[in-house]
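Bit of a strange request maybe. I'm writing a small parser for C-alpha cell strings and I need a real example to test against, not something I typed by hand. Could someone generate the C-alpha cells for this chain?
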Amino acid sequence: MSGTPRRASVRALAKLNLSLKVLNKRPDGYHELRTVFQTVSLADSIDIEFTPGRRSEVELVSDVDIPDNLVERAARLAMEALRIRGRARFRLTKRIPAGAGLGGGSSDAAAVLLALPALAGKRVDLETLVELGGRLGSDVPFFLLGGGAVAVGRGTEIYPLPDVPARQGLVVMPPVQVSTPDAYRALRRELTPAAGSRTINSFQALVWRLVCGVPDGAWEEPLENDFEAVVFAQYPQLKSIKRKLRKLGARPAMLTGSGAALFGLFRSRSEVADAAAALPEQDVFPIATVGRARYRAMWWKCLGAHLGRKSWPPEGRYS
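Reply from user aminoacidic:
Good idea to test on real output. This should exercise your parser:
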C-alpha cells in the first residue's frame, strides 16, 4: 500500500416507519409499499480508514458477528463500481438492535457509500449512489437522504418530506425475533393489486398533513402499520407494549417496520424518562427525530477534514 491513511468516524442512524402500507406482491417477488421513513438519533458507529494504493482490500472488525455484513458488502460494491483502489478498514460498533425493523444494517451500508468515495477522492452523484444502495437492500437508498421521506415501490423510490420540529421518543426492543419473510407471508398479499383506493387515500392524506406542516398533530393520528395485525397476533406481548406506551402518553405508539421494535413519541424529555422507568423489563433506547438539515450537518462534521465544500453527496477534497 502507498499513500497516507485517511480516517473518519461516522454515525449510521436508525429509522422509524411512521406509516407502512403493504399493497400487492410484485412480479419481481418484492411487495409494493407505501411508507414514511424518519431518521432518529439511535446510531451505530463506524470508524473508517482508507489508504490509497494499487490493490483493493477490505477489512472489517465488528463487535457483533453478523454473517454477510452489509458494511463489507457495501465497501466491495463501491470499490468495484467506482474503481476505488486502496485498503479500506472498518470498525463497526453496533447499537441499533438487529432484526428490529430499525434499518441498522441498511444504514451501515449507506454510511459506507457516503463516506468511502469522499475519503477515496471519487466524485459520485446521488443517482449512482441510490442505484448502488438499491442493490444492497430496499431501505439503503433512504439513508442516503435522511430526514423524513415517502418511499414507494419496493421502498427504493424516495421522495423527501420537509423537516418538522424534532420530537423526543423511546424505542422499545422486546426479547423476541420477528421473521420479516414470515410477516409478509402472513399478510397474504397477492400478485394482482387489490382494490386499495381507501388505503392509498388514507396514506395520501397523511403525506399531505406532513407536507403542509400541521403543527403538533402531523404525526399523531391516524398512523398505521399493516404488519401490526399479523405480528401482534403471533406476539401479543408486543400489542401490550404498544398499549402501555399509549397509556404513558406516546402519540404515536406503533411497531416500526415488521418489528420487533416499537416506538413512542412524546412531547417532552421528562415524559420519555417517565416512560423508560415504567418499562424496566424491556430494553429501551431514548431517541430524538433527526431532520434532513441536521442529518447532512452531522455528515459534514464527521467528514469535515476531508471535504472540499459542503455538497451532497459529500465530496472529498482529494477529487
